[in-house]
Amino acid sequence: MSNSVDTAVQLADLSATTLLRFATAGSVDDGKSTLVGRLLHDSKSVLTDQLEAVEAASLKRGQEAPDLALLTDGLRAEREQGITIDVAYRYFATPRRRFILADTPGHVQYTRNMVTGASTADLAVVLVDARNGVIEQTRRHAAVAALLRVPHVVLAVNKMDLVAYEEKVFASIAEEFTAYASELGVPEITAIPISALAGDNVVEPSANMDWYGGPTVLEHLETVPVSHDLTSCHARLPVQYVIRPQTAELPDYRGYAGQIAAGTFRVGEPVTVLPSGRTSTVAGIDLLGESVDVAWTPQSVTLLLADDIDISRGDLIVPSGDAPATTQDVEATVCHVADQPLTVGQRVLLKHTTRTVKAIVKEIESRLTLDDLSQHPNPGQLVANDIGRVKVRTAEPLALDAYADSRRTGSFLLIDPADGTTLAAGMAGESFATHKVLTTVEDEEGWDF
After folding, report:
1. Helix, strand or coil for residue 347?
2. What is the DSSP string of 220-238?
Protein backbone atom coordinates (compact mmCIF):
# COMPACT_ATOMS: atom_id res chain seq x y z
CA MET A 1 0.00 0.00 0.00
CA SER A 2 2.80 2.38 0.89
CA ASN A 3 4.46 1.79 -2.51
CA SER A 4 1.25 2.84 -4.27
CA VAL A 5 1.06 5.99 -2.16
CA ASP A 6 4.71 6.79 -2.86
CA THR A 7 4.15 6.31 -6.59
CA ALA A 8 1.12 8.58 -6.53
CA VAL A 9 3.09 11.26 -4.68
CA GLN A 10 5.94 11.00 -7.21
CA LEU A 11 3.52 11.35 -10.12
CA ALA A 12 1.90 14.35 -8.46
CA ASP A 13 5.29 15.98 -8.01
CA LEU A 14 6.16 15.15 -11.63
CA SER A 15 2.99 16.69 -13.00
CA ALA A 16 3.32 19.83 -10.94
CA THR A 17 6.85 20.67 -11.96
CA THR A 18 7.58 19.41 -15.48
CA LEU A 19 6.90 20.41 -19.04
CA LEU A 20 7.41 17.88 -21.82
CA ARG A 21 8.46 19.10 -25.25
CA PHE A 22 7.92 16.41 -27.86
CA ALA A 23 7.89 16.11 -31.63
CA THR A 24 6.10 13.76 -33.98
CA ALA A 25 7.74 12.42 -37.14
CA GLY A 26 7.06 9.80 -39.76
CA SER A 27 6.60 9.28 -43.47
CA VAL A 28 3.76 10.75 -45.54
CA ASP A 29 0.34 9.28 -44.66
CA ASP A 30 1.63 7.46 -41.59
CA GLY A 31 -0.98 9.37 -39.58
CA LYS A 32 1.00 11.94 -37.57
CA SER A 33 -1.59 14.68 -37.73
CA THR A 34 -4.38 12.19 -37.00
CA LEU A 35 -2.47 10.97 -33.93
CA VAL A 36 -1.98 14.52 -32.70
CA GLY A 37 -5.64 15.32 -33.34
CA ARG A 38 -6.68 12.17 -31.48
CA LEU A 39 -4.44 13.11 -28.53
CA LEU A 40 -5.96 16.58 -28.36
CA HIS A 41 -9.52 15.35 -28.84
CA ASP A 42 -9.49 12.40 -26.45
CA SER A 43 -7.60 14.30 -23.75
CA LYS A 44 -10.32 17.00 -23.89
CA SER A 45 -7.82 19.63 -25.07
CA VAL A 46 -9.91 20.86 -28.03
CA LEU A 47 -12.21 23.86 -27.69
CA THR A 48 -15.80 23.45 -28.83
CA ASP A 49 -15.51 25.99 -31.66
CA GLN A 50 -12.35 24.26 -32.93
CA LEU A 51 -14.10 20.90 -33.04
CA GLU A 52 -17.13 22.43 -34.76
CA ALA A 53 -14.86 23.98 -37.41
CA VAL A 54 -13.18 20.61 -38.01
CA GLU A 55 -16.55 18.86 -38.30
CA ALA A 56 -17.76 21.48 -40.80
CA ALA A 57 -14.57 21.21 -42.88
CA SER A 58 -14.80 17.41 -42.86
CA LEU A 59 -18.42 17.45 -44.05
CA LYS A 60 -17.48 19.84 -46.87
CA ARG A 61 -14.87 17.30 -48.00
CA GLY A 62 -17.46 14.51 -47.98
CA GLN A 63 -16.27 12.83 -44.78
CA GLU A 64 -18.86 11.56 -42.34
CA ALA A 65 -16.60 11.56 -39.27
CA PRO A 66 -14.46 14.54 -38.19
CA ASP A 67 -10.97 14.47 -39.70
CA LEU A 68 -8.91 15.07 -36.57
CA ALA A 69 -5.78 15.75 -38.67
CA LEU A 70 -7.30 19.17 -39.46
CA LEU A 71 -6.68 20.20 -35.86
CA THR A 72 -2.98 20.53 -36.70
CA ASP A 73 -2.85 20.98 -40.49
CA GLY A 74 -3.42 24.71 -40.42
CA LEU A 75 -2.00 25.89 -43.75
CA ARG A 76 -4.39 26.01 -46.68
CA ALA A 77 -1.95 24.01 -48.81
CA GLU A 78 -1.80 21.37 -46.09
CA ARG A 79 -5.57 21.03 -45.93
CA GLU A 80 -5.87 20.84 -49.70
CA GLN A 81 -3.08 18.28 -50.16
CA GLY A 82 -3.80 16.32 -46.99
CA ILE A 83 -0.16 16.51 -45.86
CA THR A 84 1.80 18.42 -43.24
CA ILE A 85 4.24 20.98 -44.68
CA ASP A 86 5.22 23.31 -41.85
CA VAL A 87 5.96 22.50 -38.22
CA ALA A 88 2.68 22.87 -36.31
CA TYR A 89 3.08 23.70 -32.63
CA ARG A 90 0.34 22.90 -30.15
CA TYR A 91 0.14 23.52 -26.42
CA PHE A 92 -2.02 21.39 -24.16
CA ALA A 93 -2.13 19.98 -20.66
CA THR A 94 -3.52 17.10 -18.66
CA PRO A 95 -3.85 16.86 -14.86
CA ARG A 96 -0.45 15.15 -14.85
CA ARG A 97 1.71 17.29 -17.13
CA ARG A 98 1.96 20.22 -19.55
CA PHE A 99 3.01 19.68 -23.17
CA ILE A 100 4.48 21.57 -26.12
CA LEU A 101 4.03 19.49 -29.24
CA ALA A 102 5.72 19.95 -32.62
CA ASP A 103 3.96 18.09 -35.44
CA THR A 104 6.65 17.87 -38.15
CA PRO A 105 6.22 17.05 -41.85
CA GLY A 106 6.66 13.55 -43.22
CA HIS A 107 7.58 14.18 -46.84
CA VAL A 108 11.28 13.70 -47.56
CA GLN A 109 11.67 17.26 -48.89
CA TYR A 110 10.54 18.60 -45.49
CA THR A 111 12.85 16.47 -43.35
CA ARG A 112 14.70 19.70 -42.52
CA ASN A 113 11.58 20.89 -40.71
CA MET A 114 11.98 17.95 -38.33
CA VAL A 115 15.38 19.33 -37.35
CA THR A 116 13.60 22.50 -36.24
CA GLY A 117 10.86 20.67 -34.38
CA ALA A 118 13.11 18.15 -32.65
CA SER A 119 16.01 20.46 -31.79
CA THR A 120 14.50 21.32 -28.38
CA ALA A 121 12.45 18.14 -27.88
CA ASP A 122 12.74 15.85 -24.86
CA LEU A 123 10.96 13.06 -26.73
CA ALA A 124 10.25 12.13 -30.34
CA VAL A 125 7.29 10.05 -31.51
CA VAL A 126 8.22 8.27 -34.75
CA LEU A 127 5.21 6.83 -36.56
CA VAL A 128 5.35 3.80 -38.82
CA ASP A 129 2.55 2.46 -41.01
CA ALA A 130 2.05 -1.14 -39.89
CA ARG A 131 1.51 -2.16 -43.54
CA ASN A 132 4.83 -0.71 -44.72
CA GLY A 133 7.14 -1.24 -41.76
CA VAL A 134 10.46 0.59 -41.37
CA ILE A 135 11.30 2.53 -44.54
CA GLU A 136 14.08 4.97 -45.49
CA GLN A 137 12.25 7.99 -44.13
CA THR A 138 11.78 6.17 -40.81
CA ARG A 139 15.51 5.59 -40.65
CA ARG A 140 16.18 9.22 -41.52
CA HIS A 141 13.95 10.41 -38.68
CA ALA A 142 15.65 8.02 -36.26
CA ALA A 143 19.04 9.36 -37.38
CA VAL A 144 17.96 12.98 -36.87
CA ALA A 145 16.60 12.17 -33.40
CA ALA A 146 19.88 10.46 -32.50
CA LEU A 147 22.01 13.33 -33.81
CA LEU A 148 19.95 15.89 -31.94
CA ARG A 149 20.33 13.74 -28.82
CA VAL A 150 16.62 13.49 -28.16
CA PRO A 151 16.70 11.38 -24.97
CA HIS A 152 13.46 9.41 -25.49
CA VAL A 153 12.01 7.93 -28.69
CA VAL A 154 8.56 6.36 -29.00
CA LEU A 155 7.92 4.06 -31.95
CA ALA A 156 4.19 4.30 -32.66
CA VAL A 157 3.22 1.47 -35.02
CA ASN A 158 0.06 3.00 -36.51
CA LYS A 159 -2.85 1.60 -38.53
CA MET A 160 -2.86 -1.68 -36.63
CA ASP A 161 -6.55 -1.93 -37.55
CA LEU A 162 -5.49 -2.43 -41.18
CA VAL A 163 -3.35 -5.48 -40.31
CA ALA A 164 -6.02 -7.12 -38.14
CA TYR A 165 -4.21 -6.05 -34.95
CA GLU A 166 -1.65 -8.81 -35.49
CA GLU A 167 0.95 -9.03 -32.72
CA LYS A 168 3.53 -10.57 -35.07
CA VAL A 169 3.39 -7.54 -37.38
CA PHE A 170 4.00 -5.17 -34.48
CA ALA A 171 6.76 -7.32 -32.97
CA SER A 172 8.66 -7.54 -36.26
CA ILE A 173 8.57 -3.78 -36.84
CA ALA A 174 9.49 -3.00 -33.24
CA GLU A 175 12.46 -5.37 -33.36
CA GLU A 176 13.81 -3.92 -36.61
CA PHE A 177 13.44 -0.29 -35.51
CA THR A 178 14.87 -0.90 -32.04
CA ALA A 179 17.95 -2.58 -33.47
CA TYR A 180 18.51 0.29 -35.91
CA ALA A 181 17.91 3.11 -33.39
CA SER A 182 20.09 1.40 -30.77
CA GLU A 183 22.95 1.27 -33.27
CA LEU A 184 22.50 5.01 -33.74
CA GLY A 185 22.87 5.50 -30.00
CA VAL A 186 19.27 6.35 -29.06
CA PRO A 187 19.26 5.79 -25.28
CA GLU A 188 15.61 4.80 -24.76
CA ILE A 189 13.08 3.35 -27.20
CA THR A 190 9.45 2.52 -26.37
CA ALA A 191 7.28 0.74 -28.96
CA ILE A 192 3.48 1.12 -28.83
CA PRO A 193 0.94 -0.42 -31.26
CA ILE A 194 -1.84 2.07 -32.09
CA SER A 195 -4.63 3.04 -34.42
CA ALA A 196 -4.82 6.82 -34.42
CA LEU A 197 -8.00 6.79 -36.51
CA ALA A 198 -9.84 4.41 -34.17
CA GLY A 199 -8.17 5.65 -30.98
CA ASP A 200 -6.55 2.34 -30.00
CA ASN A 201 -3.81 2.84 -27.38
CA VAL A 202 -3.63 6.59 -27.97
CA VAL A 203 -5.40 7.85 -24.85
CA GLU A 204 -7.43 4.77 -23.89
CA PRO A 205 -6.15 1.14 -23.88
CA SER A 206 -7.24 -0.91 -26.86
CA ALA A 207 -9.73 -3.75 -26.48
CA ASN A 208 -8.47 -5.10 -29.82
CA MET A 209 -4.90 -5.73 -28.65
CA ASP A 210 -5.16 -7.60 -25.37
CA TRP A 211 -1.72 -9.07 -26.10
CA TYR A 212 -0.15 -5.65 -25.45
CA GLY A 213 0.38 -4.78 -21.79
CA GLY A 214 2.35 -1.53 -22.06
CA PRO A 215 1.26 2.11 -21.69
CA THR A 216 -0.87 4.11 -24.09
CA VAL A 217 0.81 6.98 -25.91
CA LEU A 218 -0.61 9.59 -23.53
CA GLU A 219 0.22 7.53 -20.44
CA HIS A 220 3.83 7.27 -21.57
CA LEU A 221 3.99 10.99 -22.35
CA GLU A 222 2.62 11.78 -18.90
CA THR A 223 5.01 9.55 -16.97
CA VAL A 224 8.30 9.49 -18.90
CA PRO A 225 10.99 11.04 -16.67
CA VAL A 226 12.23 14.37 -17.98
CA SER A 227 14.97 16.48 -16.47
CA HIS A 228 15.11 20.20 -17.21
CA ASP A 229 17.82 20.81 -14.62
CA LEU A 230 20.26 22.81 -16.72
CA THR A 231 21.46 24.68 -13.64
CA SER A 232 24.11 22.04 -13.01
CA CYS A 233 25.50 22.30 -16.56
CA HIS A 234 28.45 24.45 -17.66
CA ALA A 235 27.39 28.05 -17.02
CA ARG A 236 27.20 30.08 -20.23
CA LEU A 237 25.91 33.60 -20.97
CA PRO A 238 26.05 34.69 -24.63
CA VAL A 239 26.10 38.50 -24.63
CA GLN A 240 23.21 39.85 -26.64
CA TYR A 241 23.42 43.54 -25.80
CA VAL A 242 25.69 45.94 -23.91
CA ILE A 243 23.66 48.36 -21.77
CA ARG A 244 25.15 51.83 -21.15
CA PRO A 245 22.36 54.27 -20.23
CA GLN A 246 24.84 57.09 -19.35
CA THR A 247 22.22 58.99 -17.37
CA ALA A 248 22.73 61.27 -14.39
CA GLU A 249 21.40 58.52 -12.10
CA LEU A 250 23.63 55.82 -13.67
CA PRO A 251 26.68 57.60 -15.10
CA ASP A 252 29.01 54.59 -14.92
CA TYR A 253 26.53 51.75 -15.52
CA ARG A 254 27.76 49.09 -17.95
CA GLY A 255 25.83 45.83 -18.09
CA TYR A 256 25.99 42.79 -20.34
CA ALA A 257 22.53 41.46 -21.13
CA GLY A 258 21.50 38.07 -22.46
CA GLN A 259 19.70 34.83 -21.71
CA ILE A 260 21.65 32.32 -19.63
CA ALA A 261 22.07 29.34 -21.95
CA ALA A 262 23.00 26.92 -19.16
CA GLY A 263 24.19 26.80 -15.59
CA THR A 264 24.17 29.32 -12.75
CA PHE A 265 25.95 32.65 -12.13
CA ARG A 266 26.60 34.15 -8.70
CA VAL A 267 27.76 37.54 -7.47
CA GLY A 268 31.45 37.38 -6.56
CA GLU A 269 32.20 34.56 -9.00
CA PRO A 270 35.32 34.88 -11.18
CA VAL A 271 34.41 34.83 -14.89
CA THR A 272 36.20 34.79 -18.22
CA VAL A 273 35.05 36.50 -21.40
CA LEU A 274 35.56 34.53 -24.61
CA PRO A 275 37.07 34.57 -27.12
CA SER A 276 39.33 37.35 -25.73
CA GLY A 277 40.16 35.43 -22.53
CA ARG A 278 39.89 38.54 -20.34
CA THR A 279 38.89 37.87 -16.73
CA SER A 280 36.86 39.70 -14.11
CA THR A 281 34.39 39.07 -11.26
CA VAL A 282 30.59 39.27 -11.24
CA ALA A 283 29.88 42.48 -9.30
CA GLY A 284 26.10 42.37 -9.66
CA ILE A 285 23.18 40.67 -11.41
CA ASP A 286 20.06 42.54 -12.52
CA LEU A 287 16.91 40.48 -13.09
CA LEU A 288 13.63 42.16 -14.08
CA GLY A 289 14.81 45.46 -12.66
CA GLU A 290 15.89 43.95 -9.34
CA SER A 291 19.34 43.07 -8.02
CA VAL A 292 19.82 39.39 -7.19
CA ASP A 293 22.73 37.34 -5.90
CA VAL A 294 22.12 34.25 -8.08
CA ALA A 295 20.65 33.68 -11.57
CA TRP A 296 20.21 30.51 -13.62
CA THR A 297 19.06 29.25 -17.00
CA PRO A 298 16.84 30.20 -18.80
CA GLN A 299 16.58 33.59 -17.08
CA SER A 300 17.36 36.74 -19.05
CA VAL A 301 19.68 38.88 -16.97
CA THR A 302 22.21 41.68 -17.01
CA LEU A 303 25.62 40.93 -15.53
CA LEU A 304 27.73 43.69 -14.02
CA LEU A 305 31.47 43.05 -13.84
CA ALA A 306 34.03 44.47 -11.44
CA ASP A 307 36.42 45.49 -14.25
CA ASP A 308 35.84 47.75 -17.23
CA ILE A 309 36.86 45.43 -20.08
CA ASP A 310 36.01 45.32 -23.77
CA ILE A 311 32.91 43.14 -24.25
CA SER A 312 30.49 43.20 -27.18
CA ARG A 313 27.59 41.26 -28.65
CA GLY A 314 28.59 37.70 -29.46
CA ASP A 315 31.07 37.31 -26.60
CA LEU A 316 30.52 34.47 -24.15
CA ILE A 317 30.79 34.93 -20.37
CA VAL A 318 31.72 31.73 -18.51
CA PRO A 319 33.07 30.77 -15.07
CA SER A 320 36.86 31.08 -15.05
CA GLY A 321 37.27 27.51 -13.85
CA ASP A 322 34.98 26.06 -16.51
CA ALA A 323 35.86 27.78 -19.77
CA PRO A 324 35.62 25.87 -23.07
CA ALA A 325 38.58 25.97 -25.43
CA THR A 326 38.35 28.40 -28.34
CA THR A 327 39.06 27.23 -31.85
CA GLN A 328 38.88 28.27 -35.49
CA ASP A 329 38.61 24.66 -36.70
CA VAL A 330 35.12 23.30 -36.15
CA GLU A 331 34.49 19.60 -36.71
CA ALA A 332 30.83 18.68 -36.64
CA THR A 333 27.98 16.68 -38.08
CA VAL A 334 25.48 18.78 -40.01
CA CYS A 335 21.96 18.29 -41.32
CA HIS A 336 21.76 20.09 -44.66
CA VAL A 337 18.46 21.96 -44.92
CA ALA A 338 18.79 24.20 -48.01
CA ASP A 339 17.80 23.48 -51.61
CA GLN A 340 21.23 24.62 -52.79
CA PRO A 341 24.08 22.18 -52.06
CA LEU A 342 26.87 22.70 -49.53
CA THR A 343 30.24 22.30 -51.26
CA VAL A 344 33.92 22.11 -50.31
CA GLY A 345 35.50 25.55 -50.42
CA GLN A 346 32.17 27.33 -50.02
CA ARG A 347 32.17 30.60 -48.10
CA VAL A 348 29.53 30.74 -45.38
CA LEU A 349 28.60 32.51 -42.19
CA LEU A 350 28.61 30.50 -38.97
CA LYS A 351 26.13 31.60 -36.30
CA HIS A 352 26.82 30.31 -32.78
CA THR A 353 24.54 31.66 -30.02
CA THR A 354 24.68 35.47 -30.55
CA ARG A 355 27.93 35.45 -32.53
CA THR A 356 28.16 35.33 -36.34
CA VAL A 357 31.53 34.96 -38.10
CA LYS A 358 32.82 34.31 -41.62
CA ALA A 359 33.87 30.76 -42.38
CA ILE A 360 34.93 28.37 -45.16
CA VAL A 361 33.87 24.76 -45.59
CA LYS A 362 37.30 23.11 -45.61
CA GLU A 363 36.16 19.53 -46.02
CA ILE A 364 33.07 17.39 -46.31
CA GLU A 365 34.53 14.26 -44.82
CA SER A 366 31.61 11.90 -45.30
CA ARG A 367 27.89 11.54 -45.93
CA LEU A 368 25.78 9.17 -43.88
CA THR A 369 24.11 6.33 -45.80
CA LEU A 370 20.89 5.66 -43.94
CA ASP A 371 20.30 2.12 -45.15
CA ASP A 372 23.25 0.59 -43.30
CA LEU A 373 24.67 3.60 -41.37
CA SER A 374 27.85 3.47 -43.42
CA GLN A 375 29.82 6.61 -44.26
CA HIS A 376 30.23 7.60 -47.91
CA PRO A 377 33.70 9.26 -47.87
CA ASN A 378 34.48 12.60 -49.53
CA PRO A 379 31.13 13.14 -51.30
CA GLY A 380 32.19 16.64 -52.39
CA GLN A 381 28.85 18.16 -51.48
CA LEU A 382 25.75 17.75 -49.34
CA VAL A 383 22.27 18.27 -50.77
CA ALA A 384 18.93 18.87 -49.05
CA ASN A 385 18.24 16.44 -46.18
CA ASP A 386 21.76 14.93 -46.28
CA ILE A 387 23.53 14.26 -42.98
CA GLY A 388 27.29 14.60 -43.20
CA ARG A 389 30.53 15.17 -41.37
CA VAL A 390 32.28 18.50 -42.12
CA LYS A 391 35.24 20.62 -41.10
CA VAL A 392 34.78 24.39 -41.11
CA ARG A 393 37.48 27.04 -40.64
CA THR A 394 36.27 30.30 -39.08
CA ALA A 395 37.75 33.77 -39.43
CA GLU A 396 37.61 34.33 -35.67
CA PRO A 397 37.91 31.97 -32.68
CA LEU A 398 34.71 30.45 -31.32
CA ALA A 399 33.99 28.98 -27.89
CA LEU A 400 31.90 25.90 -28.69
CA ASP A 401 30.99 23.19 -26.25
CA ALA A 402 30.59 19.65 -27.48
CA TYR A 403 26.97 19.12 -28.46
CA ALA A 404 26.92 16.07 -26.17
CA ASP A 405 27.58 18.42 -23.23
CA SER A 406 25.24 21.25 -24.23
CA ARG A 407 22.60 21.31 -26.95
CA ARG A 408 22.45 25.10 -26.65
CA THR A 409 26.14 26.05 -26.90
CA GLY A 410 27.23 23.04 -28.93
CA SER A 411 24.99 23.81 -31.90
CA PHE A 412 25.35 26.30 -34.73
CA LEU A 413 23.97 27.31 -38.13
CA LEU A 414 25.72 27.68 -41.47
CA ILE A 415 24.25 30.59 -43.43
CA ASP A 416 24.58 31.79 -47.03
CA PRO A 417 26.29 35.23 -46.80
CA ALA A 418 24.62 36.37 -50.03
CA ASP A 419 20.97 36.13 -49.00
CA GLY A 420 20.88 34.91 -45.39
CA THR A 421 19.48 31.47 -46.23
CA THR A 422 20.10 28.83 -43.58
CA LEU A 423 22.20 26.10 -45.21
CA ALA A 424 22.78 23.57 -42.43
CA ALA A 425 22.27 22.92 -38.73
CA GLY A 426 25.45 21.75 -37.04
CA MET A 427 26.32 19.81 -33.92
CA ALA A 428 29.89 20.29 -32.73
CA GLY A 429 31.80 17.08 -32.10
CA GLU A 430 28.92 14.76 -33.04
CA SER A 431 29.75 11.80 -35.27
CA PHE A 432 28.55 8.31 -36.15
CA ALA A 433 32.03 7.24 -37.24
CA THR A 434 35.70 7.52 -36.27
CA HIS A 435 37.19 10.87 -37.23
CA LYS A 436 39.56 10.95 -40.20
CA VAL A 437 42.41 13.36 -40.90
CA LEU A 438 41.00 16.41 -42.68
CA THR A 439 42.92 18.19 -45.42
CA THR A 440 42.92 21.89 -46.20
CA VAL A 441 41.35 23.68 -49.14
CA GLU A 442 42.92 26.84 -50.54
CA ASP A 443 40.68 29.83 -51.20
CA GLU A 444 41.43 32.24 -54.03
CA GLU A 445 39.37 35.22 -52.87
CA GLY A 446 40.92 36.18 -49.56
CA TRP A 447 38.88 33.88 -47.28
CA ASP A 448 41.76 31.53 -46.44
CA PHE A 449 41.85 31.65 -42.63
Report:
1. strand
2. HHHHS------TTS--BEE
For the chain, the distance separating the N- and C-terminal CA atoms, rounded to the nearest angstrom, is 68
Q: What is the pLDDT of residue 313?
A: 95
CATH number, domain 237-322, options 2.40.30.10, 3.40.50.720, 2.60.40.740, 3.30.1360.120: 2.40.30.10
pLDDT in tens, 260-277: 998 999 999 999 999 999
- Between CA 357 and CA 349 the distance in angstroms is 6
Q: Identify which of 117, 173, 106 has the alpha carbon closest to the alpha carbon of residue 145.
A: 117
* Regions of the chain short of the pLDDT cut 50: 1-17, 74-85, 433-446
Give the residue extent of every domain in the chain: 2-223, 237-322, 327-428
pTM: 0.78
Provide the angle, in degrees to the nearest 10, between the axes of the packed helices 111-118 and 136-147: 30
| Long-range residue pairs from 78-87, CB within 8 A, at least 24 positions apart, any chain | 83/28, 83/29, 83/107, 84/32, 84/33, 84/110, 85/110, 85/113, 86/113, 87/113, 87/116, 87/117
Q: Are the folds of 237-322 and 327-428 the same? A: yes
Where does 30-167 show beta strands of DSSP type E? 88-93, 98-103, 123-129, 152-158
Hey, which bits of 201-277 come out as E strands?
237-238, 241-243, 255-259, 264-266, 270-274
pLDDT, tens digit, 9 for 90 and up, residues 9-58: 444 444 444 889 999 888 877 787 788 888 887 777 665 556 566 556 65
